[in-house]
Amino acid sequence: MCSKGNIRLHKFLSNNKEVLATVPISERGESTKAIDLLTETLPSERTLGMKWCLETDTFHFGNPELQNKPSTKRGPLSTIAQIYDPKGLISPLVLKGKQILQKVVASEQLWDKLMCPDDKQKWEDWRTEITNLTALSIPRCFKTETNIVSTELHHFSDASLNGYGACSYIKQVNDSRKISCNLILAKSRVAPLKKPTIPRLELQGAVTATRLANVLRKELKLSVDKETFWSDSQIVLGYISNDVRKLHLYVANRVSEIRKTTEPKQWNYVPTEFNPADIASRGIGAKEIIDNDMWWNGPPFLRDPVALDFNKQNRVNTTVNESDPEVRKKGLVTMATFNTPSITRKFTRFSSWKKLVHSIALLKSFVKQKQWMYNELKTNNLKEAEALILKMAQAESYPMKEKEKSLIKLNPKIDDEGIVHVGGRASASTLSYQQKYPIIIPKNSHLAYLLTVHYYKQISHLGRRSTLAAIRDAGIWMVNESGVVKRVLNQCVGCARLRKAPETQLMGELPKERMEATPPFTNIGIDTFGPYYVKDKRTELKRWGLLITCLYSRAVHIEVLDDMSADTLIQALRCFMALRGPVQTIYCDNGTNFVGAKNEIEKQLEITSKETKQYLLENRIHFKFNSPEASHQGGAMERMIRSVRAVLNAMTFKLKNKLDTKTLRTFFYEAENIINSRPLTATSTSNPKDHVITPNHILTMKSQSLLASPPGNFTEDDLYSSKRWKIAQAAAEEFWKTWKTEYLNSITIRQKWTRTRPNVKKGDIVIVKDNQAARNDWKLGRVTKTISGSDGLVRNLKIKIGNRFLDKKGLPMHPPTVLQRSVHSVVVLLST
User: Fold this and answer.
1) Cβ(676)–Cβ(694) under 8 Å?
2) Amino acid 720: pLDDT
3) Is residue 581 packed enough to be buried (19+ CB in 10 Å), middle (13-18) or exposed (0-12)?
4) Alpha helix positions (H), 398-423
5) DSSP per-residue codes, 579-648
6) Is the pLDDT score of 188 beyond 80?
7) Using one digit for the tens of pLDDT, what is the confidence trace for 109-130?
8) Cα gap 517→521, rounded to integer Å
9) Is the peptide bond between 531 and the residue preceding it cis, with omega within 30 degrees of 0?
10) Do 680 and 554 touch, CB atoms closer than 8 A?
11) From CA 412, how far away is CA 419, in angstroms rounded?
């Protein structure tokens, strides 16, 4: 039994049978309870992840019995975590496994995805190496000799491109001058993915050796007569012994840590072939580590009574050259020595004028009373802090010798507190002292920025002029005040959300479908308009119009839609193609019926026969969708709808409730004919011979008005003359010639968006314009992808919309929404 608060120790083990016999059987370890201590050998017992053989008093790693893990990222991570090696005795072998794990984890593949064949083979080979540790036997006691008269510790460090490490050895000499040397502690680390230079890795290895030494000093209950550190890097030895040159921060910090607990004279040079830490930094297999005498017992010169002096034999140079990349340049040292930063540089850490004043007031109270007075600051303390801040900022920006030159137009004057004011010519006015003599704030200083933000928030973001008025009314004269106020307004996210205009970009190039000479209605744009209310018998119905425009000839075709479903749209397109011929490309917006028609056509391609499917794939219609909420991208269709509506409004004005489906279809065709008879270019009244081209010229080869009878005398044979096709061909050639010379030049001019703007970038924070909602309700999002045109300018974006509905853990409750929008439909709040 144990008393309250105490722990009862039990399950005792010992490698000495006489000691174990004194322990009651109930208090022994489980493996020794059932054996006869007089006749049987002591068993092995698992201790701290290793096997302890009581009979031979040795440690065995044996077969770690590692579980079979999948060959994914999780497998190596789980397997290496099972290996318990606190002293680092097999660290060279574990290092090879960690290098494989580092490479696999650094790859972009998912955690549950199988490794590539090369990495998988390396991993399987390493797992096989682990099983070979069954032959490894490590004596538990490193004190193998009696009557020890001298004890030394030797620490070795090394580094390679793949890792760095250190190992420590205890050297003991007895009274017979017999020497024993044993590995006592080791450590290996994988080199970072962002590879430092070899000297920096060597220095990190030296730091590891120093830390091992600190652990041994604390844990070893032995009197150590001598402690020596060894490295094969002369550069690192030079860094440690350097007292002359300034080193870069990375090297200086590590040298400082080394010299805290060691002396430069303790560090010595050792060639790489005699450095056992080279094994720890590069890694070896299980069989090599078992048979490697230098790893377990140290280099031969430690056991030689006459140790080799490598420093003298190799004439080691431990001085640091001025050309070393880790040495700071002299110019930088001079600047750091003489250009002492003033306290005003600390002002840049504050984002608020109130916080700056409050902090300076607290600092003054601490200097005066030697304690912090958080709750006892008064108005006088804040005023004194404001005066001190202004005086320090002015003193730094306007030294006494330069005040008259830079501020001569302001006629400056200094008050009793040492603050510089504008002299001016308003001394006879009845204004207050601060308004007559405003305080001068230096140009482009952080203090000017803080004051501008302070008064800008006071007037609730009213605008530039109101901010300037508030600053002047407060008795402050800012040099270059307009520039400071403009910078503050441009950086204000709240104002951008309320008033900033949507982004613009240079108008894009015309699509190639509008420039290629193709037959009419080969490349088309479609859009719907309506609804129109018709009355068939006694039923009132809604009908829509499907406008189809040729992107090249600008001719139009109109079909009646009974509803806005995808099926009705497909039927209308079939009717259109039966009259006008096959279509290659269709431009449209993201209407549900258009998207549904595209999906329906693609679905039919999957269920047709092989021959039909191949034909449709070769002649299929290619849909090109504009970005949502970007009607300007479908300007070719939108402009035609405007013209068609103008004609239809005039036709249906007097009918009102008498319109039926047949009449509406007739009106659509008549409107189509009127639009197709419009001139594509401006007509000239001065020259009646100028050609006027219309879409009907290419569709029907006829003009709007026809003569009563054909001019000239024709016989019946002329109807079958071979010249008839030449006449039609000549008319078509005349149309396209006029189209290229007159109409094409008119559409290439950019009517707006004539300047190139900076591209919106991935990661920018934006709000999405919504014409159906108030501006405060526009959705906030982050740009996840930018879509550039052929000229490299971004005009379309994909935006991930923020999700304000979070669970108790702060995670989104619903998947994020991703929208595609034009740059003209967003307002950038924060740019990356």
Assistant:
1) yes
2) 41
3) exposed
4) 400-406
5) HH---SEEEE---HHHHHHHHHHHHHHHHS-HHHHHHHHHHPPEEEEPPTT-GGGGHHHHHHHHHHHHHH
6) yes
7) 788 788 888 888 888 888 878 8
8) 11
9) yes
10) yes
11) 10
